[in-house]
Automatic annotation (TrEMBL):
Its main location: cytoplasm. This is 3-hydroxyacyl-[acyl-carrier-protein] dehydratase. Pfam families: FabA (PF07977). NCBIfam families: PRK00006.1 (NF000582). GO terms for cellular component: cytoplasm; membrane. It is an enzyme of class 4 (lyase). GO terms for molecular function: (3R)-hydroxyacyl-[acyl-carrier-protein] dehydratase activity. Transmembrane segments: none annotated. The keyword Cytoplasm applies. GO terms for biological process: lipid A biosynthetic process.
Length: 165
């Protein structure tokens, strides 16, 4: 953590099950758009808790906004979707489904932006799988900062072949 930055993870969230390198095994995202950096909990194949710590040096803050850095709302949604994609990858691996599939964001519903955050904040994502049908998976996600809701939404992911195929 950079000197002077805040860390609002609750003690129960400090345990790290997966670091950045293990996350990269499950999703194709890389910097600067890999928006989760730790997995803390995976429960019963239908819930995942992840986090991302924002640093003053993160490139997004140079442009959004230089004099008042605020983490973009759509990045929270993408962080929740990436968490859901990791959960999908873990579940598929457990089921022996190892063929390469990409998860594409298919829908975003009921989004509520409640609290802006910026450099020094650690965002905790809690994402739950609500239902599946064919290649579609529906999730509910909440982003917390300092145990306060920053963003919440529902979203779906469609599994498909990579664009290269």
């Amino acid at each position: 953590m950079i000197r002077g930055e805040k860390n609002f993870m609750s003690p129960s969230q400090i345990n790290i099950l997966m670091d950045l390198e293990k996350i990269k095994k499950y999703i194709p995202h890389r910097d600067p758009l890999l928006l989760i950096d730790s997995i803390h909990e995976v429960t019963d194949n239908d819930r995942i808790v992840s986090s991302k710590t924002h640093h003053t040096t993160d490139p997004v803050f140079a442009g959004h906004f230089p004099d008042n850095p605020i983490y973009p709302g759509v990045y929270y949604i993408e962080g929740m979707a990436q968490s859901g994609a990791v959960l999908i990858g873990i579940n598929r691996e457990k089921e022996g489904l190892l063929e390469e599939k990409l998860g594409f964001l298919a829908s975003i519903d009921d989004v509520r932006f409640r609290k802006p955050t910026g450099p020094g904040d650690t965002v905790r994502y809690e994402v739950s799988l609500e239902k599946t049908r064919g290649p579609f998976l529906w999730f509910k996600g909440t982003a917390f900062v300092n145990d306060e809701i920053a963003v919440e939404c529902k979203f779906s992911i469609a599994l498909g072949a990579s664009r290269r195929n």
